[in-house]
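Below sits our specimen:

——
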Amino acid sequence: MRPHPTMRGLLVLATVAVGVIATVSTAAAAPTARYRLIDLGTLGGESSYATAMNDNGAVVGRSATTGGDFHGFVWRGGRMTDLGDLSPTGINNRGQIIGTVDTASGTQAVLRSHGVTRNLGRMDWPAAINNRGQIVGIDYLTTGGQVPLLWSHGTLRTLPLTDVSGINDRGQISGGRLLATGGFHASAWWHNRVTDLGAGPFDRSNTYGINDRGWIIGWVFSADQRERGALWRHGTRTDVGTLGGGRTHLVSINDRGQILALSQLADGRDHPALWQHGRMIDLTDQGVTGDLDLVAINNRGDIAVSIRPVFGVSHAAVYR
């Protein structure tokens, strides 16, 4: 899952005890497993970058071609396939791909399934797709502002949120909502009900995604206005901690409860990190190193990234 460019978050839908905040230790002994890097290559040009990955290890993104244009791609089983003008934003375990294409009237959200591309109506940007083929995304209004949408079986419905970041196989949706007071709160939607997940002292929080257990990741501002990674589960908000610094940016969560993150060290540097079992692990100790952008973690524990092997060049890659 890929975070939405605007502000971006378990879900207990009966009652949510947002006032309860758990804290965890900030570091842990490294796991025994080490990662190996798989460079996915390009479509013939110099650069490529990843945008999403499914549990089968298929990766989507964009790549330069031999002619210098950028095309969408899907990488499966060691082979990169050209998707033309599609800009992919997500892929589910059935191989259905969501993304955008440019049209004369603007950007159009589409679903590519079994080689057939289908427009998603007034949706301009698709944020996430679940394994049932349900899609959440955004309609950008010409008058300004945006409207979150749910696409299901060919039907669009407006969601009572301001932002949206993910949808799981139960149909639970993570997002955010602008309050009448001016605050912005991480929120969840399910069965026509919005649950406010609360915020910190600056009344600002938002979400980045949701897994099939209903666990939601996102952020809350700390007292000194730094981004703190937040996990909402069982009615409790947990600050996942850091690698010794003041901030952590969460990227992706899988159904095992592992969270991919970028976390600050005490010396101010940011390192890729993995939060699991209440501990934050520095992934540079496990071979995830270099100049890279984190993209996603799947249920196998594979990590999709975009690496920069040399200055000015990017390659989609997987740490497995």
User: Anything to note?
Assistant: Residues 1-31 have pLDDT under 50 and may be disordered.
